[in-house]
Amino acid sequence: MEPIKSVTSRTVVIPLDDIDTDQIIPARFLTTTSREGLGKHLFTDWRYSSDGTPNPDFVLNTPGATGAQILVAGRNFGCGSSREHAPWALLDYGLRVAISTEIADIFFNNALKNGFIPVVVDATTHAWLLENPGVEITVDLESSTVSIPGREPVPFSVDRFARYCLLNGLDQMDFLTQHADDIAAFEARTG
Amino acid sequence: MKSLFDKLWDAHVVVPQTAETPAILYIDLHLIHEVTSPQAFDLLRARNLKVRRPDRTLATMDHSIPTVPVSSLAELDVVSESAAARQIRQIMKNCEEFGIELKDFKSPDRGIVHIIGPELGATQPGKTIVCGDSHTSTHGAFGALAFGIGTTEVAHVLATQCMLQRKPKSFAINLTGSLQRGVSAKDIVLRIIGEIGVDGGTGYAMEYRGSAIGPLSMDERMTICNMSIEAGARAGMMAPDDTTFEYLAGRELAPKGGAWDAAVARWRELPSDPDATFDREISLDVSAMKPMVTFGTNPGMVVAIDEAVPAPSGNDKAFAKALDYMQVEPGKLLAGTPVDVVFVGSCTNARLSDLEAAASIVKGHRVADNVRMLVVPGSQRIKNEAEAKGLDDIFRAAGAEWREPGCSMCIAMNGDIVAPGRLAVSTSNRNFEGRQGSGARTVLASPLTAAASAISGKIADPRQLVD
Questions:
Q1: CA angle B198-B353-B138, nearest 5°?
Q2: Which of A37, B175, B328, B390 has the most beta carbons within 10 angstroms of its beta carbon?
Q3: Global ipTM
Q4: Burial of B464 (0-12, 13-18, 19+ CB in 10 A)
Q5: B239: part of which helix (H) or strand (E)?
Q6: pTM of the full predicted structure?
Q7: Model pLDDT for residues B206-233, shown as the tens digit of each residue
């Protein structure tokens, strides 16, 4: 994995709470055996009308969203299923960060393992970001802060191990395989 | 003063967590299926890794498998979309290559992954159990620590039988009282999610406890633990007891003879100590509970069947969007709303007792003309047991479709879908937008409520129909 230090981008805002992984990537696209190419199906049922044409009211179809890498969403983003296809689809589309006041547990873990940064901020900052779509901000992993023009840097919490892996482009599998002796000892002890 | 969760966690720590690193947690049982495993096997191949413990890995095909009879791959190609058929072939190839036992579409043991684990006796108290599926919390009903994982973690567990985890906080859900007639385990868990919200369990491992649990069957306990993830919880669990042991005794993969006695003695040590503490607790009396129905687009948007749909508070865009999507109005009852489809199935409610409950309502009646009713047993064994009891005849005589086992219309990956705009009363676990088909509207309910709605042709209170 490529090391990730920070992401600077305009934001795109979907101000809805409880956006579930079935919206991020509907189950009918999970028959794939690849992790590639899911971006075209991201938010499909919101992005496209039933006749397949882009829904002009959906934020990702608006001119300001082009090239944006930071998604600001309502509370409890990524709830629902364990499908890792959700961060795969977000990344393949070109998004690299999701900011909310709360991010669902399995999605959070899946995101970090793929270099998609889940950022939980305080309610005041979140409300400001919701009200100011398209502002250019920086999510800095090294300092674990969000920099917003004209505001104090906002700290966010990220597991130190996950951050270390992302900053150095390390795969967590390596950490596990390095503990093969501990695992063997555990198996010998517990049967 | 350890809780059940503490005991399960502590017994599986290979390397403890520190400020810098998460714990390495050992996994006793890894369940895999065709949808979330292909990319994990690719990760293993790319790194030239083997599956560390094929003997602790159990595979089946459930999500994209058709529910019409299929006896060969050639037939599968005819009834399935090409991508779904390719996915089925891929898990066969992967299990063959990595030496994993696969309960394939011809196996008498096949079924929904969270149904066959317990059925085979692979699910046991004291175990850590993971699967690339969020409803893995089902297995917590046996006093196991069970949770859903992503595909990268599936690869971790395949290669090392371990995963990296930070210990979640603990949450006790105390349940007292006894259920009234016509009210079921599904109603309990929907009520809990309505109480704490779809993120109420985020960051927690939940233990359901209290005097209401003891009288519940394993089927009922599994229904409750199954939906823990719908409250956002990492896991949901219940202490094992004699009901648990009676369920497991004699099953193929359960311990036998002296090993059984030793296991039961161990399992009896698992319940939370009397002085165990929890990071959060709530208490609910199940005696006051009623049949529950969801009105919105997540499982927390739920009311009792005789309660009106609430009005959105303030500027809640998601709530307003949900009511609009569902075409429901605040202040009105859901009961009486015309129904297009009734689905009885899924890892939440496709066990024998669920099918019996639905059949008890349907027996001697006809499914209303405006309704398509699909009954999908959770496993091949359940299908066989149900047929031995004549349940298939009851459903067919009523005009319902009796299908082969699988996830089916819960996730709508296999061709079993609800058409756009149609309203389905479903015994499954998710009423998200489009979950049962693009544009489909889902009302989650118990098997009793679903069956009552099927024969009424509209959302109906089962209490008026149970004898």
A1: 35
A2: B175
A3: 0.97
A4: exposed
A5: none
A6: 0.98
A7: 999 999 999 999 999 999 999 999 999 9
